[in-house]
Amino acid sequence: MSDAADGESVSGATDDEGPAVLVLSGHRTEKLVDPLETTGEAITTVTNTADGLAGRFVGVLRDGIRHARSEEVDVVVGDHGGVVGFAAAILGTLFGLPVVIRIGGEIWQINREKAAEFRADGEYGQYALISAFRAMNWFTFRRAEGFLVLTDHLAVLTVQETGCDPRAVRVVGVPIDVDAYQEASGGDAREALSIEESTVVTTVTNLRFRGKYEGVRRTLPAVERLLDAHPDTAFVVAGDGRYREQLLDDIDERFDAETRERIYVPGFVDDVRSLYAASTVVCYVSFIDGFGNVVREGQAAGKPVVTNDGYGMREQVEDGVTGVLVDADADAVFTAVDDLLTDPDRRAALGEAGLESVTERGDTERVGRGLYDAIVDLVRRAR
């Protein structure tokens, strides 16, 4: 069964076994919808990625109600909080259905930080909006019978923030298209950014969040030493957001003009796979990250990854085997990256092991089965 409209798509599959799942999503489909649809189970999905939060909310709720009225539904799954999770909670309340919410990041800390930033900067419209989101999430999470999260780190946070029973939380990762990363050409990124250096240390981040900006900022002393020790090495920071200009100021203040020419801060990079392919080492330090997707992307590209031993990142890396875990300080980062830049055999071994690990963990069918089985367990517990 399928139908589509502007900004909205609905698809489904039926089977005689297991609960019938109605998934509401306002995001790209590859993380939740696509893997679930590989299971062959009774999955109906409503996806609305239209611009405008109000339109997305109305569209998802309207089509969710239509499906709940016209076919058998045993559980509603909302992809994240916000307007889609709120729609799932309302739908569950209207039809007396259990609700499961997928959480993909540290939304509580992010929303608290954003609220404080908007209020301090006098952005009262944005402050009102984030406050509304927090209120919606409060209702949604109180209504939910279960949660799907990406890491043990997020599982602990979910219990702490919602007060739910730990048994109501299941950890299931997300798939990744390893082939797409393996097929990417590093030459495209080199040409686009005019990178001439032979080796490249890359970080990909989201500079909308202070914790991620702080991760890069605290790495700069290590970068200074690395670029001094390796004169044919470039450092690339890909990512955009409100802290990008502040980061540029930090870089301009720390580095002399000659060294500064080997630091690239292009903002958002559309072809990030090519950038990973061009990289010699991927280095990611962050103080807010429920999952650590940059780590997985670097592994999918077959690159050695250095990341701080915390948050969701540590769960993506077996230290010394599929990557390197370090303390979040400049000395530790310098030592780890410097060792890799001078040891191509170790770089290759870590890259190969990381690729093998992420290929297994990120298999779409494996993730889909894990998601469905987790939903089944949560529904049984709710009953």
Automatic annotation (TrEMBL):
InterPro entries per record: Glyco_trans_1
Coiled-coil ranges per UniProt: none
GO terms, molecular function: glycosyltransferase activity
One Pfam family here: Glycos_transf_1
Domain (Glycosyl transferase family): residue spans on this chain: 212-354
Highest taxon in the source lineage: Archaea
Tagged with keyword Transferase: yes
Keywords linked to the UniProt accession: Glycosyltransferase, Transferase
This protein's name: Glycosyltransferase
Annotated organism of origin: Halomarina oriensis
